[in-house]
Recover the amino acids of this structure.
């Protein structure tokens, strides 16, 4: 005869492991399977505009991650309270609140960085990544899953912007995060810090990303 206590503990362990697995999947999908830049090709405005240096790309990515995390959390908490008819307007209001906080925080930390990012911080409000996750995921899932989804998508966005910014800064200035990598005789590729360089670098990373996925499936 089975022990009810032991069976209850086994069931508890199973559901705990299942929840942990789901949370891990929600996080990892944003890094790779559903990367917002390299797979979904979302948020192209800041992706191309501010990634002329690794520092700017990292700052924009972290700012977006913070807004995504906080908005996903709040939308998930209020998902049963917000009337369906005004959900989009409510999501935008929530997102705009956290974007304002981020904007003021960046101004307090570094006016130079704030000027470099310019209006693109304010444009986080209409970033497809954030509004899309609020509507498609946070409004339909628990707080825990919404947090993991936000972290995964956010870090995936950071990874993409950092990858673009590092390549453009390295070839355009010969440095990464302001630290010289190439000797002074290095001839800088000025085009890499111009808009055309953003499109070229994005195309290069998309090619590498998709080639790796295709090559991995073939193995």
């Amino acid at each position: 005869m089975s022990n009810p206590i032991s069976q209850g503990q086994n069931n508890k362990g199973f559901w705990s492991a299942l929840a942990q697995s789901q949370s891990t999947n929600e996080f990892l999908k944003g890094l790779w399977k559903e990367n917002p830049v390299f797979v979904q090709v979302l948020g192209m405005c800041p992706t191309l505009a501010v990634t002329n240096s690794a520092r700017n790309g990292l700052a924009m990515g972290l700012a977006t991650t913070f807004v995504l995390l906080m908005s996903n959390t709040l939308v998930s908490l209020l998902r049963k309270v917000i009337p369906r008819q005004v959900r989009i307007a409510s999501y935008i209001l929530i997102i705009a609140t956290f974007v304002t906080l981020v904007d003021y925080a960046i101004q307090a930390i570094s006016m130079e960085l704030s000027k470099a990012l310019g209006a693109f911080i304010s444009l986080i409000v209409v970033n497809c990544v954030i509004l899309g996750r609020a509507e498609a995921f946070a409004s339909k899932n628990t707080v825990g899953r919404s947090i993991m989804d936000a972290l995964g998508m956010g870090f995936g966005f950071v990874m993409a912007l950092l990858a673009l910014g590092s390549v453009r800064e390295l070839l355009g200035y010969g440095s990464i995060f302001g630290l010289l990598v190439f000797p002074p005789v290095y001839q800088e590729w000025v085009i890499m810090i111009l808009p055309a360089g953003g499109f070229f670098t994005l195309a290069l990373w998309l090619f590498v990303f998709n080639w790796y996925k295709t090559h991995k499936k073939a193995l």
Observations:
- The mean pLDDT is 87.
- The CA atoms of residues 211 and 217 lie 10 Å apart.
